[in-house]
Amino acid sequence: MNKNKFPPKSANSSTSSPAKSTIKPAKPASRGPVNRATAVDSKVAPARNANGSLKKEPFKNPNRRAIAAAKPVQSQTLAPIIVLFNKPFDVLCQFTDEQGRKTLKDYIPIADVYAAGRLDRDSEGLLLLTNDGQLQARLTEPKKKTFKTYWVQVEGVPTEDALTKLRQGVELNDGMTLPAKVKIMDSPDIGPRNPPVRERKNIPTTWLEIQIHEGRNRQVRRMTAHIGFPTLRLIRYKIGQWSLDNLPSGEHKCIRLGDEV
C-alpha cells in the first residue's frame, strides 16, 4: 500500500511553477488603418478650444422648465400716458442740448415719454408727449387727419382772396399743401410773449385761426409768408381732442386711461 497521500509526479514534471498558457486572446477585427494622432478610446473625446484647452459646457438644470413655470410672470408694459405741455417761446422740443439752451427737461420730470410731433423753438403752445408708440404714430400721420389748430398773429390784414388760397392749398418749395381751415379771429386771451413780439407801429396785425393736419417743417409760417403776410407769433392751441384750456405757459399735465392725474 502506497503511503504517499499525493499521486506520483509525472516524468515531465518539475519543481518549477506550471508553464503559462501560450494561447493569446484573439484581436478584434480591424476596421482599416488607424491614425494614431486621431485615435480615441471608446469614450467620446472632450471638446477643445483652438488653443487646445477644454471647452466649458454651460450648466443645464434639468428642472429649469419647472423652475421657470413656478416664477410669476411680470408684465413690462407701461400704462399708456399722454403729457400735455404748454411750451413757452425759446424752448427746444427735446430733452438734451449741448449748447445749454432750454429743453423739455427743464419743465417735464417724466421719464420715457417722447414728443408726438414737434413745435419750433420760436413757436409756443400745445405739445403732446406719450409713451405709447401707436398713439404717437396716429397723431403724426397725415393720413389719420388729426387736425391741429394754430392761433397765428400775422403782419397786416389779409384779404379774403388771400385766405382762400390757404383754404385751397398753396405751392411751397416742398409741394402743395393740403387744404386748410382758415378764419380771422379776435385776439386770444393770452399773456404777452417773453421777449415781446416786434410789431411795427404803422402796420396793423391780424390774428388767424388755422387748422391743418400736416406736419411739415415750419409749415404755417411758410403758408402765411406765401400769401404775403408773415407770421409774428404762433401758438398751437389744439391737437385732436386735446387743447391748452386751463394750462398756463410752462406747465404740463398727465393723462392716463382718459383720467386726469
TrEMBL record:
It holds the Pfam family PseudoU_synth_2. Residues 8-22 have a biased composition (Low complexity). GO terms for molecular function: catalytic activity, acting on RNA; pseudouridine synthase activity; RNA binding. It comes from the Bacteria. Its EC number is 5.4.99.-. One of its GO terms (biological process) is pseudouridine synthesis. Residues 1-63 are annotated as: Disordered. Keywords: Isomerase. InterPro entries: PsdUridine_s_RsuA/RluB/E/F_cat, PsdUridine_synth_cat_dom_sf, PsdUridine_synth_RsuA/RluA, PsdUridine_synth_RsuA/RluB/E/F, PsdUridine_synth_RsuA/RluB_CS, RsuA_PseudoU_synthase, TruA/RsuA/RluB/E/F_N. Signal peptide: none annotated. Residues 82-226 form the Pseudouridine synthase RsuA/RluA-like domain. PROSITE patterns: PSI_RSU (PS01149). Belongs to the pseudouridine synthase RsuA family. This is Pseudouridine synthase. It comes from Shewanella septentrionalis.
